[in-house]
């Protein structure tokens, strides 16, 4: 059964798989940085009303499965997550400033997951560390 959400103007079910990586794909997203990143992402999703379905932080990239209001836009959500996490993580972990001119690359991957069953995508993200 499809889980529909709504705002004042739109009833929707938009879920996205987003992936992005640190500048130069450096493996810097290890604990405690990875744990703090998860907290920041969850906070941004809560503030924007996005539904955080699944997230996995690998040392050199991030997988995110998220439901997002189409009027807000996935591009604005990713921009908000990357912007806030870069500012906070670089402030809390000075080693990130010395190794990277900026935390994230400008680019990211995003696709809709309407065609594949959600549990298949969720399992794929959950099993990233065992691949």
From TrEMBL:
Transmembrane segments: none
GO molecular function, one term: transposase activity
InterPro entries: Transposase_17, Transposase_17_sf
Domain of life: Bacteria
GO BP terms in the entry: DNA transposition
Gene3D superfamilies, sorted: Transposase IS200-like (3.30.70.1290)
Transposase IS200-like domain residues: 11-128
A Pfam family this chain is assigned to: Y1_Tnp
Name of the protein: IS200/IS605 family transposase
PANTHER family registered for this protein in UniProt: TRANSPOSASE FOR INSERTION SEQUENCE ELEMENT IS200
Keywords of this entry: Plasmid
């Amino acid at each position: 059964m499809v889980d529909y959400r709504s705002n004042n103007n739109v009833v929707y079910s938009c879920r996205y798989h987003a992936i992005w990586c640190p500048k130069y794909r450096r493996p810097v997203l290890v604990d405690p940085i990875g744990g703090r990143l998860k907290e920041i992402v969850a906070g941004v999703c809560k503030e924007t009303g996005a539904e955080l379905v699944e997230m996995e932080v690998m040392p050199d990239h991030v997988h995110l499965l998220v439901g997002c209001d189409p009027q807000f836009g996935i591009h604005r959500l990713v921009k908000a997550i990357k912007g806030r996490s870069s500012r906070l993580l670089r402030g809390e972990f000075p080693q990130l400033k010395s190794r990277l001119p900026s935390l994230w690359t400008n680019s990211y991957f995003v696709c809709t997951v309407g065609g594949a069953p959600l549990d298949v995508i969720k399992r794929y993200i959950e099993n990233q560390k065992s691949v």
